[in-house]
Amino acid sequence: MGQMSCAMPRADIKSKRIKHNNYFIFLRAPAAKNMFSFLKDTDEIPQNNPKLKAHAVKVFKMTCESAIQLHEKGEVVVADTTLKWLGSVHLQNGVIDPHFEVVKEALLRTVKEAIGEKWSEEINGAWEEAYDQLATAIKNEMKPESLQTS
Protein backbone atom coordinates (compact mmCIF):
# COMPACT_ATOMS: atom_id res chain seq x y z
CA MET A 1 0.00 0.00 0.00
CA GLY A 2 3.00 2.28 0.40
CA GLN A 3 1.62 4.14 3.42
CA MET A 4 4.08 5.16 6.09
CA SER A 5 3.63 3.61 9.48
CA CYS A 6 2.78 6.10 12.17
CA ALA A 7 5.29 8.42 10.49
CA MET A 8 6.59 9.53 13.86
CA PRO A 9 6.84 8.41 17.46
CA ARG A 10 3.75 9.14 19.50
CA ALA A 11 5.90 11.06 21.95
CA ASP A 12 6.40 13.73 19.28
CA ILE A 13 2.82 14.85 19.78
CA LYS A 14 2.81 17.26 22.64
CA SER A 15 -0.25 17.11 24.87
CA LYS A 16 -0.45 20.89 24.61
CA ARG A 17 -0.98 20.63 20.85
CA ILE A 18 -3.61 17.92 21.24
CA LYS A 19 -5.38 20.11 23.77
CA HIS A 20 -5.17 23.22 21.58
CA ASN A 21 -6.28 21.57 18.36
CA ASN A 22 -9.01 19.60 20.08
CA TYR A 23 -10.50 22.95 21.08
CA PHE A 24 -10.36 23.87 17.37
CA ILE A 25 -13.24 21.40 16.88
CA PHE A 26 -15.50 23.66 18.93
CA LEU A 27 -14.46 26.74 17.02
CA ARG A 28 -15.48 25.02 13.77
CA ALA A 29 -18.53 23.21 15.14
CA PRO A 30 -19.73 24.86 18.39
CA ALA A 31 -22.74 22.55 18.68
CA ALA A 32 -20.38 19.57 18.96
CA LYS A 33 -19.81 20.53 22.60
CA ASN A 34 -23.23 19.12 23.48
CA MET A 35 -22.26 15.71 22.09
CA PHE A 36 -19.92 15.15 25.01
CA SER A 37 -21.81 14.18 28.16
CA PHE A 38 -19.16 15.82 30.33
CA LEU A 39 -19.53 19.17 28.49
CA LYS A 40 -23.31 19.28 28.02
CA ASP A 41 -25.04 22.22 29.62
CA THR A 42 -21.80 23.76 30.91
CA ASP A 43 -20.15 27.07 30.24
CA GLU A 44 -16.76 25.43 30.63
CA ILE A 45 -14.07 26.30 28.12
CA PRO A 46 -13.57 22.89 26.51
CA GLN A 47 -9.80 23.22 26.18
CA ASN A 48 -9.53 23.01 29.97
CA ASN A 49 -11.37 19.70 30.30
CA PRO A 50 -9.19 16.64 31.06
CA LYS A 51 -11.87 14.25 29.75
CA LEU A 52 -11.87 16.04 26.41
CA LYS A 53 -8.11 15.82 26.23
CA ALA A 54 -8.33 12.08 27.02
CA HIS A 55 -10.83 11.71 24.16
CA ALA A 56 -8.46 13.52 21.79
CA VAL A 57 -5.60 11.23 22.81
CA LYS A 58 -7.78 8.16 22.13
CA VAL A 59 -8.64 9.45 18.64
CA PHE A 60 -4.96 10.13 18.01
CA LYS A 61 -3.86 6.67 19.22
CA MET A 62 -6.54 4.82 17.26
CA THR A 63 -5.61 6.72 14.10
CA CYS A 64 -1.92 6.06 14.70
CA GLU A 65 -2.62 2.34 15.13
CA SER A 66 -4.69 2.43 11.94
CA ALA A 67 -1.79 4.03 10.06
CA ILE A 68 0.56 1.31 11.29
CA GLN A 69 -1.90 -1.40 10.27
CA LEU A 70 -2.30 0.12 6.81
CA HIS A 71 1.47 0.11 6.41
CA GLU A 72 1.97 -3.42 7.72
CA LYS A 73 -1.21 -5.22 6.60
CA GLY A 74 -2.77 -2.99 3.97
CA GLU A 75 -5.98 -2.63 5.99
CA VAL A 76 -7.36 -1.28 9.25
CA VAL A 77 -8.51 -3.95 11.68
CA VAL A 78 -10.51 -3.02 14.77
CA ALA A 79 -12.27 -5.55 16.98
CA ASP A 80 -15.97 -5.93 16.11
CA THR A 81 -17.03 -5.28 19.69
CA THR A 82 -15.03 -2.04 19.74
CA LEU A 83 -16.53 -0.91 16.42
CA LYS A 84 -20.06 -1.77 17.50
CA TRP A 85 -19.58 0.17 20.74
CA LEU A 86 -18.04 3.17 18.94
CA GLY A 87 -20.84 3.11 16.36
CA SER A 88 -23.49 3.00 19.07
CA VAL A 89 -21.92 5.83 21.11
CA HIS A 90 -21.44 8.07 18.07
CA LEU A 91 -25.01 7.43 16.88
CA GLN A 92 -26.42 8.03 20.36
CA ASN A 93 -24.60 11.36 20.57
CA GLY A 94 -25.82 12.57 17.18
CA VAL A 95 -22.48 12.46 15.40
CA ILE A 96 -22.86 12.99 11.63
CA ASP A 97 -20.45 13.02 8.67
CA PRO A 98 -19.43 16.70 8.98
CA HIS A 99 -18.33 16.06 12.58
CA PHE A 100 -15.93 13.36 11.42
CA GLU A 101 -14.45 15.84 8.93
CA VAL A 102 -13.88 18.52 11.58
CA VAL A 103 -12.17 15.99 13.85
CA LYS A 104 -9.98 14.86 10.95
CA GLU A 105 -8.98 18.44 10.24
CA ALA A 106 -8.04 18.99 13.90
CA LEU A 107 -6.09 15.72 13.97
CA LEU A 108 -4.13 16.55 10.82
CA ARG A 109 -3.35 20.04 12.17
CA THR A 110 -2.08 18.52 15.40
CA VAL A 111 0.22 16.08 13.61
CA LYS A 112 1.49 18.75 11.22
CA GLU A 113 2.29 21.21 14.02
CA ALA A 114 3.89 18.52 16.16
CA ILE A 115 6.33 17.21 13.58
CA GLY A 116 7.12 20.56 11.99
CA GLU A 117 9.70 20.34 9.22
CA LYS A 118 9.35 16.54 9.00
CA TRP A 119 5.84 17.12 7.60
CA SER A 120 5.24 15.94 4.04
CA GLU A 121 2.34 15.21 1.73
CA GLU A 122 3.13 11.51 2.16
CA ILE A 123 2.73 11.75 5.93
CA ASN A 124 -0.46 13.77 5.51
CA GLY A 125 -1.81 11.15 3.11
CA ALA A 126 -0.97 8.28 5.47
CA TRP A 127 -2.71 9.92 8.44
CA GLU A 128 -5.67 11.02 6.33
CA GLU A 129 -6.20 7.55 4.88
CA ALA A 130 -5.86 5.94 8.32
CA TYR A 131 -8.42 8.32 9.82
CA ASP A 132 -10.80 7.93 6.87
CA GLN A 133 -10.74 4.14 7.10
CA LEU A 134 -11.27 4.21 10.84
CA ALA A 135 -14.12 6.73 10.51
CA THR A 136 -15.74 4.63 7.77
CA ALA A 137 -15.57 1.53 9.97
CA ILE A 138 -17.24 3.44 12.82
CA LYS A 139 -19.89 4.94 10.51
CA ASN A 140 -20.69 1.46 9.17
CA GLU A 141 -21.63 0.48 12.73
CA MET A 142 -23.79 3.54 13.37
CA LYS A 143 -27.06 1.67 12.98
CA PRO A 144 -30.23 2.41 14.96
CA GLU A 145 -30.41 -1.23 16.02
CA SER A 146 -26.99 -0.88 17.67
CA LEU A 147 -28.32 1.61 20.23
CA GLN A 148 -28.32 0.10 23.66
CA THR A 149 -31.59 0.36 25.49
CA SER A 150 -31.52 0.71 29.22
TrEMBL record:
Record keywords: Cytoplasm, Heme, Iron, Metal-binding, Nucleus
Globin domain mapped to chain residues: 1-143
Cellular compartment(s): Cytoplasm; Nucleus
Primary localisation category: cytoplasm
Alphabetized InterPro entries for the sequence: Globin, Globin-like_sf, Globin/Proto, Leghaemoglobin-like, Leghaemoglobin_Fe_BS
SUPFAM superfamilies associated with the record: Globin-like (SSF46458)
Keyword hit for Metal-binding: yes
UniProt keyword annotation of Cytoplasm present: yes
PANTHER family linked: LEGHEMOGLOBIN-RELATED (PTHR22924), NON-SYMBIOTIC HEMOGLOBIN 2 (PTHR22924:SF92)
Family: Belongs to the plant globin family.
Name of protein: Globin domain-containing protein
Annotated organism of origin: Rehmannia glutinosa
Phylogenetic placement of the source organism: Eukaryota, Viridiplantae, Streptophyta, Embryophyta, Tracheophyta
